[in-house]
Every structure is written in C-alpha cells, then in structure tokens.
Write a structure and sequence with these properties.
CATH class of the largest domain: Alpha Beta
Distance between the termini: 64 Å
Number of domains: 3
Helix content: 40-55%
Largest sheet: 5 strands, parallel
Strand content: 15-25%
Number of strands: 10
CATH topology of the largest domain: Cobalt-precorrin-4 Transmethylase, domain 1
Order of helices and strands: EHEHEHEHEHEHEHEEHEHHH
Length: about 290
C-alpha cells in the first residue's frame, strides 16, 4: 500500500496488508482503548514481545486470536516472515509487554524495515511510561530528551551522564529497581544533590509513587527501602545562567580543596567526577 495514502479515507479497521503498532497498558489494564481491542481481535495474528503477557490482555477482554513471539532474540528471523505475510495481504498487530512498541524494544526495527518495503503502518496509540512520568513530574515538559535505559559500558554511560548534567532540557530515563541506587549515585556525582528530579514507580498501578523533589531527597528516601517495580526517572535540565555560575562555584571549590591540602591533580580529578567534566577542564581553572 502506498505510504502517501490519505488517512481520512481509511476503511474499517483492520485493513489488509497493514502493520498495526498497538499501544498496551503499562500497568492498569483498564487503560486499553476500544480501538486497540478491535485491532487485536480482528487482525490475522498478533506479534508480541512475550505471549504470556499479551495473553493476560486477551483473557481479560475475552479476545481469541493467534499470538506469535516477536522479541529481540528472534526478531531477525521473524521480521522477514512478517513482511512476507503483509505482502500477502494479512493484517498484523505488534505489541510489547507494556506501553508503546518501538520504545526500547525491537518494534523500532520492524517499523523501519516494513516502511522500506513500501508497506503501510498505522499506530494505535496507548500508554507510555516516559510521557506519563514526564507530565506527572511537574518539571518542564515542552522540550525533553528520552534516554531510555543508560548503556552498561562505563565510558558510554559517563558520556550520557555528562550530557544530562549540562542539558537545558528535561531528561527521562528508564531504570531497573536493582540498579536504581547506582543511577542515583551517578546522577548525584554528575548533577549535584540539589538538581530537581522525580522518580516514578509502578505507574498506573495500585502502588504508584512519585518520589522527589531533588536528588539528595530521593537518595535518602530509598536508602533503607527494598526497591521493586518499574522505574522511570525524570531529571530537570540546567538553566542557561547556571552554566556560568557552575564554573565559578567549581573554581572556588578547587581553590578550597587545594588550600585544604589536596594536590591540584587530586582536586581536579575529584571535582571532574562530581561535576561530569574532564579533569583537564578543572585543572585549567587554577
């Protein structure tokens, strides 16, 4: 189907030969839209990240349809088959375990490949943890950066943390409960304890929590707690005028540390790590 076809003249859904990207709830199953339910019920089959998770939706809403597994482990095998079925005129829905497919999952790959084949794609929008957390945070939401899960490789991780520390836009991060304390420590070292932040836990679920309002407070909140549930972190950007103010503060801290007996090298290394800067930048302030 031509990608330039007018959406205003759509036939009854689902249409043949179309890939539907279907948003599903991130916790509360009552967030499922009627349109999404109609698609899941009537497409040729549903490709899902984990059939066990999608089956919960199907059972709750009394939907019976064929489910196939489609995830990061088998996407290279499944994508060519899905393209073939679409070209044969089948309608297919893609869902992730929760939220919008394509956000931190292989839905991104299939959309790119299917579009390159000239096949039409329609998104049936639904919940997204990143946007839900952002609009609940009270932090600036007109301009933001979504980082998803930070890379595990330390050098790549430090680069992004540095960018976050100096970014004027709000940043949204996904994190696992097991690694949240590590992330908070890194954010403290790169952004300082006063940076405004909101940690959202178990969004749309019974025990939903919003924890803030700065990094120091959030670290203290989780100090002696067992952390469970899905985590989304929203970090406020830095004000433009604060960039120059930061440098004056860092320079004063450098002088104070040297007066206290640290070498220029040791003081520069410490402040570089705390402020997300290169050691040479701090060193040259003296």
């Amino acid at each position: 189907m031509n990608n330039n076809s007018s959406l205003s003249h759509r036939k009854e859904e689902p249409e043949n030969g179309i890939l539907y990207i279907v948003g599903t709830p991130i916790g509360n199953l009552n967030d499922m839209s009627q349109r999404a339910l109609n698609i899941l019920k009537n497409v040729s089959f549903v490709a899902c990240e984990d059939t066990r998770q999608t089956k919960k939706i199907m059972i709750k809403f009394n939907i019976s349809n064929k489910l196939i597994s489609f995830n990061k482990h088998n996407s290279s095998i499944k994508i060519p088959k899905i393209v073939k079925y679409l070209k044969e005129g089948k309608s297919i829905a893609i869902v992730s375990d929760a939220g919008m497919p394509g956000i931190c999952d292989p839905g991104e790959d299939i959309v790119r490949i299917v579009k390159s084949e000239g096949i039409d794609i329609i998104c049936v929008p639904g919940a997204c943890a990143a946007i839900t957390a952002l609009v609940s945070s009270g932090l600036p939401s007109s301009r933001f950066v979504f980082e998803g899960f930070l890379p595990k490789k330390q050098i790549d991780r430090e680069k992004i943390l540095f960018e976050i520390s100096k970014n004027e836009k709000t940043t949204i991060i996904y994190e696992s409960p097991k690694r949240l304390r590590k992330l908070l420590k890194e954010l403290f070292e790169s952004c300082g304890g006063n940076r405004e932040i909101m940690v959202a836990r178990e969004l749309t679920k019974r025990f939903e929590e919003h924890i803030g309002h700065n990094i120091d407070e959030v670290i203290e909140f989780f100090r002696d707690k067992d952390i469970i549930g899905e985590i989304t972190v929203v970090v406020k950007g830095i004000k433009k005028k604060d960039l120059n103010t930061d440098r004056l503060i860092i320079k004063k801290d450098l002088n104070d540390l040297i007066d206290a007996g640290l070498s220029l090298s040791a003081a520069s290394k410490y402040l570089a790590k705390r402020n997300g800067l290169r050691k040479s930048e701090i060193y040259n302030m003296f």
